[in-house]
Specification:
Blueprint: H1 3-12, H2 16-25, H3 33-40, H4 44-56, E1 60-65, E2 68-73, H5 76-102, E3 107-112, H6 116-129, E4 135-140, H7 147-160, E5 166-171, H8 179-185, E6 189-192, E7 199-204, E8 207-212, E9 218-223, H9 225-241, E10 243-244
Parallel strand pairs: 4-5, 5-6
Antiparallel strand pairs: 1-2, 3-9, 4-7, 6-10, 7-8, 8-9
Helix pairs in contact: 2-3, 2-4, 3-4, 6-7
């Protein structure tokens, strides 16, 4: 199994058995659950459950012929089209939910799990996209820990650099030659100073976020103007003594 392909499917939300069943259908016109079970080495009764989950996620279709069920993969364009419709609904909800959240002067948001930092990055991108991100300062480490996360962040950066935001980044020198850092430099300027912490710090608007890159990554976002202003002052102090790229 192609490891990169498997990682991308996992990043999307498929588990190992779903990936095995899905890949067993690639290149096949139609297969019964029995043949899928043989190809994927997964018990047939388990295959039925997995196939139903894949149908629910839009990856697979089923068709009955003469009392026999056959399964086939959907074209990814069809999957993407369905996701786009759902994405548009969610995007329309974002400003309405933001209005409710902004009524609170202060708030703390905890995001946990393997997708926590990706979710935070996506939220940050939406602020920029809607013209509500005035500045973004980063201190710390590369909080992208695998190939699929890198791809996701690079995509957001490419879209964000079309927008005008005040970006500055301070990184540990050991990351100086990493491709992801070069992507960040397209947004503004990077500088380097020895920052041994595993915590990434992002300061933006009246917010500050701590992104922890561990086996169980998580992100803590705090909305508080006083704390944000203090961290911004600390950042500018580090900026003044850090090494230009």
């Amino acid at each position: 199994m192609d490891e990169n392909l498997s990682n991308l499917l996992k990043e999307y939300g498929l588990d190992n058995n779903e990936i095995r069943v899905y890949l067993s259908l690639i290149g096949e016109k139609e297969l019964t659950a029995y043949k899928i079970s043989k190809k994927s080495s997964i018990h047939r009764s388990t295959c039925y459950d997995i196939l139903e989950r894949l149908i629910g996620k839009g990856f697979v279709s089923k068709l009955e012929k003469e009392g026999v069920l056959y399964y086939s993969v959907n074209e990814l364009n069809k999957v993407i089209s369905s996701l786009k419709d759902k994405e548009n609904i969610l995007i329309n909800l974002i400003p309405k939910l933001a209005e409710l959240e902004n009524k609170q002067d202060n708030k703390i948001n905890l995001l946990e799990g393997k997708d926590s930092q990706k979710q935070f990055n996506f939220n940050l991108f939406n602020l920029a996209k809607n013209g509500k991100l005035s500045f973004c300062y980063i201190i710390g480490n590369t909080h992208a820990s695998n190939l699929s996360s890198n791809i996701f962040i690079e995509k957001l950066i490419k879209e964000t650099k079309k927008l005008k935001i005040d970006y500055k980044g301070i990184w540990n020198p050991k990351y100086k030659k990493e491709g992801l850092i070069k992507e960040y430099s397209s947004l503004g300027e990077n500088r380097f100073i020895d920052v041994p912490s595993k915590v990434g710090v992002i300061i933006f608007n009246d917010h500050i976020a701590f992104l922890y890159t561990t086996d169980q990554p998580y992100a803590i976002e705090i909305k508080n103007k006083i704390i944000s202003d203090e961290m911004k002052s600390y950042f500018l102090h580090l900026w003044g003594i850090s090494e230009p790229d």
